[in-house]
Design goal:
Length: 245
Amino acid sequence: MPIMKPNTQTMSFHDLRDALAQPGCAVCRLKADAADRFLDSLLWESVNDPGRRREIRHARGFCHRHAWSLVRAGASLGVAIVTRDVLQSVLGALESAAFEPSSPWSVRRVHEALDPGQPAASTAELVAQLEPQAPCPACAWVEKMEAIYLDELLSHLIGEDGLLAGYEASDGLCLPHFRQALARVRDERVFEALLDAQRAVWDRLVTHLDEFIRKNDHRFRDETWGEERDAWLRAIAALAGARPD
């Protein structure tokens, strides 16, 4: 993988550099920002765009997280327009719905009797119509931006004015994003730099956890807390990614 020169630095590079200076996984932070920008753009610029509305209808709205992220100051009218559109589409599916009974002696009915948790064949067609026919639009956009940021990180990690120093001083990547980054590495020098930096980040976190555990011992509870105070929260974020909120 070639080392990109400073004059090829993009907005994504500067976003990464700024995010690395903040607490937590930089890519998690940038994903959250990308989702916010997408939803802001939808609500205040694209709520009446036919293509965007069609995309949202096919997705049956948004996933749980991004649906509730629509709740923001001044967004009520845009949300009402979008959700009404989706509900009208769902109601259209209900209009033609019919219960489709199967023979009491069919293999499917026997299976349903043996396993009550199995979806009923009689309502399977309607259930399929109510399922999302496309991914959550916000999720699709965020996944696209996630890939861009990971590639940008790897392209600019080493070399003059690269991101390595900022990475080493940061909280690194969370485990899910570190796995994704490793899967995209094509250069051994980048692999070694990424591995060494992430190992140092996690070694530092383990040291903080050790100190947190030690100070919870009754013999040392009078000692002043330092940066290890929130190590248990940072450890959750390191293993699972940033909190959804």
